[in-house]
Amino acid sequence: MTSSLPLEDRGLAYGDGLFETVLLNDGQPRLWDEHLARLVRGCHALGIPMPAEHDLAAPLAEAPRGLAVLKLVVTRGSGGRGYCPPRDPEPRLAWQVSAFSPAVDAWRQGVRVRHCRLRLGIQPLLAGIKHLGRLENVLARAEWSDPQVAEGLVCDSDGVLVEATAMNLFWQRDGRLETPCLDRCGVAGTLRAALLERLAIDEVAAKPEALLDAEAVWVGNSVQGVWPLVRLDDSDGHMLASWRLGKMHRALQAEAQALLGYPLAEH
């Protein structure tokens, strides 16, 4: 286990690896089983040996009191020739623990979100896992600098809704909770996985227009929790829709807050 990676590591050279970002509260990980399950899926998809669970949990002993975030990085290690991976990889595990404060105002007041111009490439072999090659997300996030805009929504190359740049997407339409199906691209978040187990949420293929018919829309992840949308803009910053926060917004949020150990958002 290491807190850094050498320059010849394949994770640095090619994005040949995976990562997990875990919320800690007094050293206790939230949604730990979901994080481990996604890491197992990612290691299987990339053909990287899964680290031992006790190695993955070792950084927890060094976590500070209060809220923190643990970032775990698993790479294929060094070796191989060019893109050709080594036959018997020796993976590396790197990690970092940082103090953290959630965006409480976003829980309570909701957020403004915009559509991004960038389109995600479709690659089912990598769909759902949290691999290191996240340049698409970086470029999408670089599309705006307005601090009033909290997130950006991205579609795949066929124009189907996938996710936000760093969060999953949910909405309620005709009384039904829905979230994009992530079988072609995108990151299947651990909070999303936990909510799918507990609530009746349909995984659907939908175009952006679906959000205009939604009674409520949210973005969320396992670190920040769930943020309700109060405004949706197009990629030029023009408002497409707005929502007044109500009980339906708080219901999904309450489930997420409980899973993460956060207090309920104020009405």
TrEMBL record:
Its EC number is 4.1.3.38. SUPFAM superfamilies: D-aminoacid aminotransferase-like PLP-dependent enzymes (SSF56752). One of its GO terms (molecular function) is pyridoxal phosphate binding. Its cofactor is pyridoxal 5'-phosphate. It catalyses: 4-amino-4-deoxychorismate = 4-aminobenzoate + pyruvate + H(+). Pathway: Cofactor biosynthesis; tetrahydrofolate biosynthesis; 4-aminobenzoate from chorismate: step 2/2. Homodimer. Belongs to the class-IV pyridoxal-phosphate-dependent aminotransferase family. This is Aminodeoxychorismate lyase.
